[in-house]
Amino acid sequence: MKKLLLVVVTVALVFTFSACKEDENVLVIFQNKVEIDTVLRDYADAWGLENDITVDIQTCGGDTCAYGTQILAEFQADDQPDIFVIEGMGGYDLYKDNILDVTGEAWTTNTDLEFVVDGKVFGFPVAVEGWGMAYNADILEAAGVDPASLTSQAAYALAFETIDAYFIEEEMTDGVVVSMAAGAGMEWVTGLHNFNGYLSAGLAYDDSSVIDDLNAGIVDSARLTEYADWVELLFTWGDQTILLSGGYDEQVGAFASGDAAFLHQGNWTDSSYSESDFEFGYAPHATLATGMDSIFIGAPSYYVINANTDSEDAAKLFLNDLASTSEGHDYMVNKANMVPAFNSVTLLPATPLSAEVMKWNQDGKAYAWWQNDMPSGFGMEVLGPIYTLFANGTIDKEEFIAQITAEIENLG
Length: 412
Description:
- This protein is α/β, with parallel strands linked by helices.
- It folds into 2 domains: about 20-130 and about 300-325, Periplasmic binding protein-like II (D-Maltodextrin-Binding Protein, domain 2, 3-Layer(aba) Sandwich); about 130-300 and about 370-410, D-Maltodextrin-Binding Protein, domain 2.
- It is built from 17 helices and 13 strands.
- The strands form 4 sheets. The chain has a 4-stranded antiparallel β-sheet, sandwiched between helices. A 4-stranded mixed β-sheet has the order 8-9-7-10.
- Helix 6 (about 155-170) runs parallel beside helix 10, helix 10 (about 220-235) packs across helix 17 and helix 13 (about 310-325) crosses helix 14 (about 325-335).
- It is globular and about 65 Å long.
């Protein structure tokens, strides 16, 4: 859902696997992250030379190629990739008859973020993404706010007031307490990422009770009320221009320039900070009133092996080496600028928020991503507009709660 900042020339939409597949030592990988296309090809070429296997990387994604449409076309054709990408249960449900059970593979003991269905492992996590309340450590220090204290709504309310007073005292007219967007086009920030707090905050990583209830049309009223208090606090202290009419660039730009104390975004924004000269950090969202000690961390996509491949051994070896070798770790962290999902990786990303996500993840301080397990369109198309109404004052907090409650109950 993040905005793709790297524009890539369109790859051909018709991929010809047949010529390659005549050679049994060919491994075809169909993937959707255009920003890693070049470095993945370089890694795959080097790995292929080492293992006497030709690796054919096919990339389709971003603004130039619709991955979902093209991968479906590949499976309707005679020739199919050996490794491809799914994004959670939606992708699994579409291709489950074509996905190999990889339970027991060595890499599965090296991660807590593998894709599992009914106790069986099917997906290799491509990377980790995460978000909390990103903060400008220099502003917080100057204002006298300790980020370690930000574990409750009361602590955030005090911090927001303190920072606002600091901006006024220092005559920092461009100072922004919270940079968050809730207008049209930014429903993924509210109806997906922010609402994920209702689904997972305070719960064990594998606790799906709230998302299970939601999909059954059941609302936890007490939890939703606490959550609405957090939304109200963010909207109250958010820069109103950014909140109501700002897009991704305005939201991230206010933080990158050093004007904003807090940013409601994830580590995918790292490419925006090459000229930022302040210290970064993440604090938990105070989704519930007290006791928040983690940020939201998940694997948004997974490599899966085609159950019908003739190159099963090569596919398994490729993924195991990616997770377990120094070359694989170097590719993921230093070349692709990703946060690996594997516990054995000791390298830290050079980019600031990705480094923060990795630290939180290695410390075991993670709340799960459940927003992608809601019904298709529910977060952005149904919930998102309700946030916009709340942000612009058309409805109050009680009506916000009432409308979300009604929409969840309609799922039953």
